[in-house]
Amino acid sequence: MRRFSWFNVTSLTLGFAFLYLPMVLLVVYSFNESRLVTVWAGFSTKWYGELLRNEEFLDAAWVTLKVAVFSSTIATVLGTMAAYVLVRAGRFRGRTLFSGMIYAPLVMPEVITGLSLLLLFIGIGLDRGVLTIVLAHTTFSMCYVSVVVSSRLTSFDRSLEEAALDLGCSPFEAFRLVTLPIIAPAVISGWLLAFTLSLDDLVIASFTTGPSATTLPIKIFSAVRLGVSPEINALSTLLIGIVTVGVITASIVTKRAAVAQARDEQAAERNE
Amino acid sequence: MRRFALIAIPYFWLLILFLVPFVIVLKISLSDVALARPPYTPQLDLSAGWEGLRAFFSELDFENFVFLTTDDLYWKAYVSSLKIALVSTLLTLLVGYPIAYGMARAPNEWRPTLLMLVILPFWTSFLIRVYSWMGILSNEGTLNTVLLWLGVIDTPLQIMNTNTAVYIGIVYTYLPFMVLPIYSALEKMDESLIEAAEDLGCSKLAAFWLVTWPLSRNGIIAGCFLVFIPAIGEFVIPSLLGGSGTLMIGKVLFEEFFSNRDWPVASAVAVILLLILIIPIILFQRNEQKAREAEG
Amino acid sequence: MAQTVFAPWEDPEQKPLIEFRNVTKRFGEFTAIDDLSLNIYEREFFALLGPSGCGKTTMMRMLAGFESVTEGHIWLGGQDIINVPPNKRPVNMMFQSYALFPHLSIWDNIAFGLRRESKDKAMIEERVEEMLRLTRLTKFARRKPHQISGGQRQRVALARSLAKAPKLLLLDEPLGALDKKLREETQFELMDIQEKTGTTFVIVTHDQEEAMTVASRIAVMDEGRLVQVDTPDVIYEAPNSVYVADFIGDVNLIPGTAKPRPAEPEAPAPEPAPAAVEDAAPAVEGTSPEATAQAKVQTDARLPAPNARGEWLYKKVFARFMGQRDLATPQLPPPSPEELAAARKAEAKAAAKPAPAPAPAPKPAIKPGGILIDWAEGQPPIIAANGDPALDGKPVTLSIRPEKVTIDLEKPDRPNVLPGKVIDIAYLGNISTYHVELASGQMVKAQMVNARRLSNRHITWEDAVWIGFTETAGVVLEE
């Protein structure tokens, strides 16, 4: 059995300390009585109370959630289609352009994406608001979804689809009955990725939003520009908590499934 | 018919919401300030046929680009962005490599947990992660408080609102992008290679330098590009952690657009930023391609 | 062997189930299948055999409908199917990876195809149960594919593809993922199921042993063409080319040049080969037209032994100038009518088929006719009684299986005897293969059954030995 060498322990400890200490401090100071973030004045949950009474934050959170749910859902549908096209549709006119458009947003600076979309929306006279943010978020997050899904599709044994066709499925039935259930985990993680990207996004939302729709990141950004605020700490703690619980749950679920599968397979070989 | 719909729906979505906006940016970057309000003049009047086309093009000029070269704010911002991105990429590599190495050499049962610990921040809001450093680096922040208490320093260090803060912010937020590709390159490596190198007379350090490092090269290159490319256009980090002296093109563009409302110049800034990015993007793609081919 | 031989390909009345008509398949510049025509009959177990990239998988995928046909037509049961999509073809396929749906139970996997075409639950249930019984999987019905072993998965794949009772079942390297022992068992199981269900099977494999075991006929493919289509025994005993001989089993290939064999059939030869050549040399020129004629008739007939027709030929043609033959010389018994009929049917088989009856004569005669092969400078030529005299002067290759080559320390009394030296011995338990280097440097493998225990065997490394084989043991192949 391999063990940690002291060098590895040191580098991992320091590395993870660097990654987690700032967030731990953030969480700790969210329970600080004092408004001054750096002076500890006793434990308190009053900032959470203030946060929940702050209508602006609640409104922004609601807008953000709406945008994230809509955009990630549309992005998942479009991204899965795009992935399927990239991996399975073979050659067609303009394929190079298509794959270029899928990969470009991944490396595109957000300021450029945001600027260009804003100019489009102004050009076609679309009122800026929730709809325009949803369109913008869908566009860049569908590319992430398609990357996640297409990497799963590439490793997907194509003969499974052929078997479905061979047994009498139409191509659409084969997708619905065989491909989709099997790639479902990738589609779900694509959705989660799109959802998080939408929740996080500040720059593109700033460009494409109008006065009617302020998202949480925009709100946070304008608040923290002026300096550290305990309310934002409280808000951050909530968000970090949600993400942590989500990620840990997901990893436990997948690990359980993997362990069960490995156990079944071993049992199967013994039964031979 | 179904196949056509399958291709056409995502295709047109991207055409309209990704490609067309770029064409608009390009066009506005070539237009005049006063006329750059919708419907962005010059307008292409197709009904006028060839004459219309010629009139359209004759109205376009490179004035905005010329303007960018005359005002040294812009090219300084480009150079400074590149410098900041480069330095912070190297710093990220320096911090990230030992972590990736430690993970790849960790006992098998530990690896999934370590991997999850690296990915977890990635799911956490970028903005919050940058914000978390504001409380640490400010003059009355945690770092200065601790250092003063320890007696290491007498007066608070000015880190917040300097380029140093920007470096720290970039290293911190982009660390997972560096660690993950290096980790996956190192994890794939057969450990008996190290044993073979030592068996053939290498010291541990020589074995690392002659075997491990070259074999993790693809991961290193991928990681560096994944940090470098987005860092160039970074906006949130310089505007929260950097000071007035921190020039980064993403910030300049944002301010040009929202404060000065000068759309044509902002568009020209974006076009040049894109041109600068094309080179590392192509190099990155090529590296990925090679790595894929090497894996067969 | 009382039942009638299953050989629909010999019956001109039989309509083939599958007909490839001048089928060509190109992938861009690359021609995967090149103007190929082939008939496959109902109830056949047909094997497509060849190295990877020979086009066998493409053929199968064209039958299943996963590859389009560039040129030509494929008929299945009287219907041109090239434009029929895979889900509308009465063809099912068993995939190399088995392609079991991981999210469905064994039961649902088998029912999958049935549910596509029928809503009748009871019918589906009955059919699935039947398939489970046939493949002995009943107790695994509720499991998921990852919960059963490789061999069981293979049977699920078979059951699923048979469930719809297809006219034609395609098997793509069906046993490739199984270990050797399981594979052998499963081969017999496959044959058994094929017989029970009466389905036509087309199997793709690169494993020649597998093809030989299961198939009624084998098509050997190379670079998108059919090299030979025949029953396993003909493929093995009478390959039509060096490629087939080399691909199927172990073989010695001795290149040389053909020259006519003197018509004197039985130069009483203790020193068979060289003596025969010298004695007969003058006669060669004078008799060559007749010899050619004789050879032509013989090759046309392609009967296994110097039989009735050979007798007739001798009497009518050769007796005139060679005088009456001593009929007392022990000859192979004339073939029985049944044997003759069988031989005529399987034309291609004939060339190399070992003499039908053992005929243990005190001193076997050397069969007349055929050719001599000069294979090395200063060495007596090899007698190949089954060679086509029309090959005279052409470069040929004698292909001879190691098990037909004997090895002795003393010079044996055999039609072809060549001296050599043992270089290597491969001991495989039941048999040993001796690698013998002949004087010319040519390596020849000889196989012996290890009937005796190891300690009793006497031939060892560096021994000077004689290898021997009969005049009909080899097959003469044109380059």
TrEMBL record, chain A:
Stored InterPro entries: Bact_Polyamine_Transport, MetI-like, MetI-like_sf
Gene Ontology CC terms: plasma membrane
Domain of life: Bacteria
Major localization class: membrane
Residues spanning the signal sequence: none
Segments crossing the lipid bilayer: 12-31, 67-89, 101-124, 130-153, 174-194, 232-253
Entry annotated with the keyword Transport: yes
Keywords annotated in UniProt: Cell membrane, Membrane, Transmembrane, Transmembrane helix, Transport
Membrane topology recorded in Swiss-Prot or TrEMBL: Multi-pass membrane protein
Keyword field contains Transport: yes
Location of the ABC transmembrane type-1 domain: 61-253
An example Gene Ontology biological process: transmembrane transport
Subcellular location(s) of the protein: Cell membrane
PANTHER family: PUTRESCINE TRANSPORT SYSTEM PERMEASE PROTEIN POTI
Family the entry assigns: Belongs to the binding-protein-dependent transport system permease family. CysTW subfamily.
The protein's name in its UniProt record: Putrescine ABC transporter, permease protein
Automatic annotation (TrEMBL), chain B:
Membrane topology classification: Multi-pass membrane protein
Principal place of residence: membrane
GO CC list: plasma membrane
Keyword RNA-binding in record: no
Coiled-coil regions, chain positions: none
Membrane-traversing stretches: 12-30, 77-101, 113-134, 165-186, 220-243, 263-284
GO BP term, pick one: transmembrane transport
Localization in the cell: Cell membrane
Keyword Membrane: yes
Pfam families xrefs: BPD_transp_1
Domain (ABC transmembrane type-1) ranges: 78-284
This protein's UniProt keywords: Cell membrane, Membrane, Transmembrane, Transmembrane helix, Transport
PANTHER family, alphabetized: INNER MEMBRANE ABC TRANSPORTER PERMEASE PROTEIN YDCU-RELATED-RELATED, PUTRESCINE TRANSPORT SYSTEM PERMEASE PROTEIN POTH
Family: Belongs to the binding-protein-dependent transport system permease family. CysTW subfamily.
UniProt name for this protein: Putrescine ABC transporter, permease protein
From TrEMBL, chain C:
Region described as Disordered: 258-303, 327-366
Listed Pfam families: ABC_tran, TOBE_2
Chain ranges of the ABC transporter domain: 18-248
Family matches, as InterPro entries: AAA+_ATPase, ABC_SmlMolc_Importer, ABC_transporter-like_ATP-bd, ABC_transporter-like_CS, Mo/tungstate-bd_C_term_dom, P-loop_NTPase, Transp-assoc_OB_typ2
Coiled-coil regions, chain positions: none
Origin superkingdom: Bacteria
Single GO cellular component term: ATP-binding cassette (ABC) transporter complex
GO term, biological process aspect, one: putrescine transport
Biased composition (Pro residues): 355-365
Annotated Low complexity bias: 274-285
Keywords, in A-Z order: ATP-binding, Cell inner membrane, Cell membrane, Membrane, Nucleotide-binding, Translocase, Transport
Bias (Basic and acidic residues): 341-350
Molecular functions per Gene Ontology: ATP binding; ATP hydrolysis activity; transmembrane transporter activity
Protein known as: Putrescine ABC transporter, ATP-binding protein
Organism: Salipiger bermudensis (strain DSM 26914 / JCM 13377 / KCTC 12554 / HTCC2601) (Pelagibaca bermudensis)
Taxonomic placement: Bacteria, Pseudomonadati, Pseudomonadota, Alphaproteobacteria, Rhodobacterales
